[in-house]
Design brief:
It is a single chain. This protein is of the alpha/beta class and 216 residues long. The chain has a domain at 10-45 and 103-208: 3-Layer(aba) Sandwich (Rossmann fold), CATH 3.40.50. The chain has helices spanning 29-37, 47-52, 59-69, 76-92, 112-118, 135-149, 157-171, 174-177, 192-210, and strands at 9-10, 13-14, 16-22, 42-46, 102-106, 122-131, 183-187. Helix 4 (76-92) crosses helix 5.
Length: 216
Amino acid sequence: MTTDKSPLHEADGLRYQAVMLVGPPGVGKGTQGKMLAQIPGIFHVSSGDMFRELDTNSKCGQIFQQCAGIGKLVPDDITIKIWQDYMETKVREGLYAPERDLLILDGIPRNITQAALIKPYTTIFKVIFMVCEDREVMFKRIRGRSLKENRIDDSEEVVVRYRWDLYKRETEPLIDHYPQELIRIIDADNVAADVLHQILSTIVPIQKKYFKPPLM
């Protein structure tokens, strides 16, 4: 990782300067991501939003629909291709300026394979590891979200526990994959404002050091 304000355009193309949000289902990543997205100079990308914006007539969109239809995860290489296209679109539309905006990655990469695939395109400043010791609290949050947002699949106990097991198996190993000096543990078993305060204490110094002041 660079320690100065290096150019974004390098021999291997545009590098997105990013912070990752990692944590189990129900820990509050989506809530924090939405709040962070309202701050000038921050661009939040969640895997859920990215997939929802897919053109269902495109090749990647059709693959996603096929996988979703049978409850399978989208293959890692296809997921990263979708992410690349999504980022390029946001740059083209002027919604994301890599030289000005810190990228918050939420749900991407999902596993170590995806981490390797995005490595040529990203500089990861920090991995924010949101933890909540009480698993049942997170299950309760997910069930509450299902009622509030009419997400019926989240209300099924077997689905909730499957997603937890999938996270433990595929995503949590990312914490050991990245250098430990990049890991920032956040206590997510608090009110949302307190969790946001912890996250901001990590990312504001990064913004000040590496980015131009945001347009207000």
